[in-house]
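FORM 7B: Structural annotation worksheet

SECTION A. Query
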Amino acid sequence: MTSPPKVSRRHALALAAGTLLATSPLPRSVALATADARVPSRGFNLPGWLDRDSGSAPATATLEKLRQAGFETIRLPVNADLVSGGDPASLRRIQNGIRDLVGFGFSVLLDMHPSGELVAAFRNDPEAAGERVLQAWMALRVVVADLPAQSVYPELLNEPPLERSAWLALRERIAATLRANCPLHTLVWGPARFQGIWEIADTPPLADDNQIAAVHYYAPMAFTHQCENWGASPLARIANLPFPASKETAAVNGLLSKLRAAGDEEAAKLVEDELSAPWTAARIAQDFADLARWSATHGCPVMLNEFGVLNFCVDAESRASWVRAVREAAEANHVAWTYWELDQGFGFIRSRRSVEGFDGSMIAALLGG
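SECTION B. Predicted structure
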């Protein structure tokens, strides 16, 4: 038998807030207040801009339209390899970009998003790769320090490609590096290795009173990533999988028959394994209830800063239904969210450079209505 856990003031306030929210209707904005941090929500990811030298900035009119629609947060990936050298022009570009977004009224998650080269470096020499991330934050923390703490949230490392124990040690070092210059900014971190919602269960929070734990949700992958061409991945051979779905769904049976007729047992098994139990809104809700329990246990705010469905070969109704189910499950469990992503394979607008081509059904799934 274990002793009852000690309840800190932070934990008690978080639990009290959870009780209040449970008995009150959710506000339109689910930016959650805790004793330590405002949790940014109702957002989207914006890769392909400040994470590369020749990235494409969103048009002013597009940002204005997205803000007017009700989006409040932008998760902004940056590349450690581009900032670790401390190049003033690169750092100034990032700072100016964030200032522009804050000027439109957005909160910004500044996401250290490792390149493929850095991910490979973590496989070959984790210690040296970790030093590269630390060096990048030593350069970037000066930028963060000059940006408003109430609007800008540094995220330590996206999908940390390390074993859990190694990541926890590096996580504390990165946090200390940022805290040296940024005592008031809320730190965002996720569990190793994939930042999956299931990986948070045995991950403790940071030794810091101003933090947000962030997870990703793409389940089931056979649905969210169907037609994704990752080398020899069987996902590339899965198409038209609906949501909700079970092994008894007619479309699923048709797909399984087609795959097996082609001799593709690998793809058929992936579909069957992922649909070993039906994928429904209720199943998604259970995953987020588990996340909410972790948050309450640790007194640590949580957010979902990646979720999405590729638009390559899924019907629009299934895609919007899954997005709505995830967003509603997150909000029902007081979990903030940012969608992956704006205008690429998972996107909900045609181009960041134009106000035309907004997907109304996806925007309604994300923002309600």
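SECTION C. Observations
Residues 224-274 form one domain. Confidence is low (pLDDT under 50) at residues 1-37.

SECTION D. Sign-off
Analyst initials: ____
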